[in-house]
Design goal:
The protein is mainly beta. The chain contains four helices and 22 strands.
């Protein structure tokens, strides 16, 4: 009997510890695969993956670390730390946790939330940069529905952007779209700017997977590894830094020729270079903001986003 009580006590402790060090949004092992914004419906396409790479404890709060990877890049493009508590999602930035979403809200409630300063890198549109990190955003919950994935019934919150009374042109309106438990926003993980390109096609979530569920919307799931030629992978062109200031460095494999183009959010070419060696590309005259690049090497095209500070 004493042994049985001891076993039950251990089981109880394990349940408590497991519950304390877990979360439903962005648990360990989670991946989101996206198709990015593109100018032409037939391509070229750019893809991104958001992956939970580790967990950590910050201010005695269990959290997970997310990395954003664009196309087949080995180095991550952005990082964000997520914590979930009492059905609320927080991100950690500037030494504090800030509210991103609240699952406790009801229809007609107003969500008051913040955005990570690098939220624009996670979006699947081609909009502008978010406001300063301390900016408060507002969204009205216009409807709540559910979606069944495997044995889980997930809440879907339909949101509508609210323009604050103190709105001016320095404030960037942000669209959360439909925010689903586990999946995040359908506008990219954290939503996207309402200031979008005049042309082109918004990206979308291809699939989601964690240790419990797998949600496939477009097949194949990890399309970036099947659509980009192995030739590009074996002759990798590296573009850095991102964000950049006045110079974009382009590292080119020896003996290769590269065609580089940079477009603004209206789709207009603002830089064009034909390179046959590793070179800096000067961008002093460009305004700060979001740009899209196209690289062609050995007949294979690769696209992505660049930010000028």
């Amino acid at each position: 009997m004493k042994q049985l009580k001891t076993l039950l006590l251990y089981a109880f402790i394990i349940i408590i510890v497991t519950d304390a060090f877990s979360q439903s949004f962005a648990p360990l092992g989670t991946k989101w695969h996206y198709q990015e914004w593109h100018m032409n419906p037939s391509g070229p396409f750019s893809f991104s993956t958001v992956e939970v790479i580790k967990d950590t404890i910050i201010d005695e709060k269990y959290s997970t670390v997310l990395h954003l990877y664009v196309n087949d890049a080995q180095n991550f493009a952005a990082e964000v730390i997520i914590h979930e508590e009492d059905n609320k999602i927080y991100f950690y930035e500037n030494n504090e946790f800030k509210l991103l979403f609240d699952y406790n809200l009801n229809k007609d409630d107003t969500l008051k939330y913040h955005l990570p300063s690098n939220a624009h890198l996670f979006e699947i549109g081609c909009g502008g940069l978010p406001s300063q990190p301390d900016t408060m955003y507002y969204a009205l919950i216009i409807d709540i529905d559910t979606i069944q994935i495997a044995d889980k019934e997930l809440l879907k919150f339909y949101t509508e952007t609210i323009m604050p009374e103190e709105y001016d042109f320095s404030y960037s309106l942000w669209d959360l779209g439909v925010f689903t438990k586990y999946l995040g926003s359908d506008r990219g993980l954290f939503g996207m700017s309402e200031a979008q390109c005049l042309a082109g096609y918004t990206g979308f979530l291809r699939c989601y997977e964690d240790n419990d569920i797998s949600y496939l919307l477009h097949e194949p799931c990890d399309f970036s590894t099947t659509d980009i030629s192995e030739t590009m992978k074996s002759n990798e062109v590296i573009i850095y830094p991102n964000p950049f200031n006045n110079v974009i460095n382009i590292t080119i494999p020896e003996g290769k020729k590269v065609s580089f183009q940079l477009f603004n959010i209206e789709g207009k070419t603002v830089l064009k270079e034909n390179l046959n060696k590793t070179s800096p590309v000067h961008a002093n005259e460009l305004k700060s903001g979001l740009y899209f690049y196209s690289i062609i090497i050995n007949g294979v095209r690769k696209t992505g986003k660049l930010i000028k500070e």
